[in-house]
Amino acid sequence: MPRRTGEARGPASPTRACAVFVLKGYPRLSETFIAEEILGLERRGFDIRIVALRRPTDDRTHPVHAEVRAPVGYLPEYLHDAPLRVLAAWRRVRRRPGYRAARAQLLRDLPRDPTRNRLRRFGQALVLADELPDGASHLHAHFIHTPASVVRYASLMAGLPWTCSAHAKDIWTSPDRDLADKLAAALWTVTCTRAGRDRLDALAPPGRPVLLNYHGLSLDRFRPLPTPRPRRDGGDVGDPVRILCVGRAVPKKGLDTLLDALALLPPGRHWRLAHVGGGPELANLKARAAALGIAARVDWLGPRDQAAVLDSYRAADLFALPCRVAGDGDRDGLPNVVVEAQSQGLAVVSTAVGGVPELVEDGTNGRLVPPDDAPALAAAIDELVADPDRRRALGRAGQARVARHFDSAASLDALARLFHGVGVGAAAADIAEAAAE
């Protein structure tokens, strides 16, 4: 994208073939895994440009964002904010051979989604297609809902192939017909859980593969805790067991159930909860903690960068994230924070929702309880609060599983093969073999 789109960083190489990654927002504290992926691909020789549909709303970033060299450009979030830019793009793009196909696709989509948002995606695609950098050879959408809508139109206008990474909310809250259309148009789609892969694979036509590729974790950044944790057992009021939860305050995280469960713990059990993350439900959760009489034992730390979150994992004794399926169908895939917590040898208590059971096996490397079941969650937490040896055993087993199966180097190598065009079949076989181990 041209520099007028703002915040371009790093040297541009306009004549070199490059991939354009289209994201909903960038940079975002809650999507470190995307920045890690881009950085990993850059280190494998890829020239990437980032285009975001939304400017950041938080000035804070993770250290990984400073390492990413890809220039960053922004499309107009709302068309009325940049009408001349959109109009100029339309005047140029409408002369291209692919414009008619993109317009025809819009006319097919409008009866199913007769909203201003649909028109906004088409307008953003006009700007994207018009301002693509010289040498752009490929478009990649991160998330199969909004970014993929923009990329699908832009790919028709520009005559470029496109691919997609699907994650969690975008999979579970998108209509089947919309998913099927995008899966048919993309060369391939990758997703980060078996549950998500199975849903998408059932909608994809033959010849349009849906591949499982866990995000993985940069084990260089998340080195194991160098010293053993203290043997806290909840018996000392001056040294309570430290429980950590990392996640946005949104319904699918089940934070209300976590507070209810903590309120059920025996009066003589001494604990303290630290929550890391922002989100629209924070005020309600703080009020709930007060109503339950546990507000004095909860620290609301707000959003934090990766280094501070790592410090929180290392200071904690137990990690809890009782995920659920929200009322609109939204749910987590495999929360990256669960992988991060286990990389630090933390015992994890969670629920058998989404992709969590693909990492956590109940009783082997963590505890899983039914979602929305505060008494069951309280029992699992109480068991581990009182038993530091059990916490340590589960934490070590989780740490070993992350090291064996969730090293980001393997997933990045598989993605690199896909982007290099070495062959979807070969990469798919590698991913399937790794998942089966």
UniProtKB/TrEMBL annotation:
UniProt KW keywords: Glycosyltransferase, Transferase
Record-linked SUPFAM superfamilies: UDP-Glycosyltransferase/glycogen phosphorylase
Top-rank taxon: Bacteria
One function term, GO molecular function aspect: glycosyltransferase activity
One Pfam match: Glycos_transf_1
Domain Glycosyl transferase family, first and last residues per copy: 237-400
Name the UniProt record assigns to this protein: Colanic acid biosynthesis glycosyltransferase WcaL
Taxonomic placement: Bacteria, Pseudomonadati, Pseudomonadota, Alphaproteobacteria, Hyphomicrobiales
